[in-house]
Structures are given as structure tokens and as C-alpha cells.
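Proteins fold reproducibly. Look at a sample protein:
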Amino acid sequence: MKFLFIVQGEGRGHLTQAITLENILLRNGHEVVEILVGKSESRRLPGFFTRSIHAPVKQFLSPNFLPTPVNKRVSLPRSIAYNILKLPEYGESIRYIRSRIQESGADIVINFYELLTGLTYFLFRPRVPQVCIGHQYLFLHKDFHLPEVDRWSMSLLNLFTRLTSLGATKRLALSFRAMGDDAGRRIAVVPPLLRRDVFRQEAKPGNYIHGYMVNSGFSECVCEWHQRHPETPLRFFWDRWEEEPVKKIDETLSFYQLDDVEFLRQMAGCRAYASTAGFESVCEAMYLGKPLMMVPAHIEQECNAFDAIRSGAGIMDENFDLGKLLDFAETYQPDTRFAAWVQSAEYMILNELETLVPGHCMQQMYMVEEFV
């Protein structure tokens, strides 16, 4: 079969999932004809993605969430105002996505949580089946217990998730653990999509804390903690592209531009891991048996952190108080069942996709989600 990928370009999680799924499909005799990546003015497509992917990559302007002025957590008012001003350009992107679906010759579209893909299927109803992949679809599952957070924010997140999957034949919900499917919502629960590079790492207990922050404003919190505890080595990755590849603050604190090879190598050798609770890197830390601290930057990451804590993976904090992470690491015991669950991903996801031969699911193609 021929696949077209459409990927949300925010952060690294959806990009690494696309790399992994492309390799799975290629190994099993399928073809990825093209990859469309949503871009924004505030993000740059990481070099690790363009180096690792095989299919031609094209970009289009896509909505994104803006951080607060100090570049930490998401600012909903700023994000809404910014994206309203961009609506005409997003309309052009929707027409572009429609043309690529029509002209690519793809049998199936794989949507990695890109909003404009769902809107394209709502407005133009392409005849090519769409499959949506992401941890966020688990939040719609009838048996998933949502965290006790702001209900308004949670409702907006679930609305956004439904909008990304308008017209979808199936939703593949990436999960930290096995759960039954939710046929009524067309949700199949599958393991995380971790790259083979993760499996090749040899995990060792190091002396430094490894970290990743999707919004570089959190670096101030890290620096403040470091000033009080300069004896603890810290190695953090961030999105401040104007800086040099490695910004060495002093002998025990360095900030790195995002490079996935180096990122995984450093994770494998760290003592503990701290991040803004992106699903992908949390899974990598769990697979490598690293205790972790999650500092959510928005409601979606709060749900990720809530779910990871239920799986015994780590703790949550508001401002990178890394002392709490070191205390947690003293008693942390990794869940050995997680590795076996992750390693079943290729079989389970292939099985879900290979049942979607064209014509088999055409009668479901034009279903439009309810908004509640």
C-alpha cells in the first residue's frame, strides 16, 4: 500500500513517530509517497527529521500554540488571537493538503494529530481513508479516566482532538499500557511508536540529570535551581535555535540544540530525566528505565503526566525543582512490562493498517464527529 503522512510539527513527538512508522512500513513492503509537515513561524523543522526520513518532505503553514511572554507555558488568549489572524493562510494550507491527497496516489492518509487534516476531510471529504495516530486519542476512550484539571481546558483539548480526526476511519491511540479498544469511537489502543535507536541504547546509571523543554523559557527555572545546587551535573535540550549547538554555562550545566542521536545517547546514560511531559520522550525514559519529572506546559501535557504517574513512571512539578526528582530516583523501580508492550507495536499497528484496504472502509469515510 501507498501511504501519505501529514504531521503536526510542534515539538519532537509526532516527528519521531512518523520516522518510526515510515521505517516499519518500508520494512514490510509498503511505501510512503510523501510527508507533509505543518510549520509555524516560531518553530524550525529539526535536522534529525530531514536526515532520518526517506520520503519527500513538504511543509505548509499550520496553527500552533504560542507561549507566554516568558516562553514557558502556553498562552491560550495569545494563541487564539494569533491563529485567527492567520485563517486566510490556513485556508490555503487546507486546499494544499487536499491537492496532495488527490495527486499523491496514496491508498491511506496517516494523520499525526494535524488539525488541518481533519478540517480538510470535513470540508472536501477526500476518498482516501484517513487513520489518526496519537496519544491524545486515548483521552476520548470511554475507559480512560481524565485528571482532575480545569474542565474548560479539558473540553477544549478534547474538542481539538476530535477536530483533528474529522472523517477518520480509525484512531490509533498510543498508550503507556494495554487497554481494550473503543469500537464506538473507532479507537484502537496500540503501544507507543519508539524508534529502533531507542532499542539499541545501553542504559547505564550516570551522575547527571538529562532534560528537554519544548519552550526554552523554562531554562530560567533550571538555572535558578543550578545556582543553588552547582554540584549536580545538568544537560538540557531546548528549542533556542539562535544559540550555538552546545551552550556551556559552566562545568556542570549545558544546554543543547535538539539532536535526536545525541538526545537518546544522553538519556541512556543519565541518572534521571526531566521534561515538559511530551509523550514520546516520557516513553523513551520509561523504556530505558529512567525516573522522570514532568513539568507540563499545557493541558495536553498535564494529561500525559497524569497517565504516566498512574503507570508509576515519575512525578509532576511546576518549575523544575530537580531536588524532588533526585529524591524520587532513590526509590524508583522501573516497570519491566513496559518494554514488552513497546516491542509489540510493529505487529499491532501493521495489523490495524493492513486491514484498511481501499473499499473496505469507504462507508465509514464520510462520518463527521459530534463536537461534544
Observations:
- Confidence is low (pLDDT under 50) at residues 359-372.
- Residues 2-193+343-363 form a domain with the Rossmann fold fold (CATH 3.40.50.2000).
- The first helix runs from residue 13 to 27.
- The chain is about 40% helix and 20% strand.
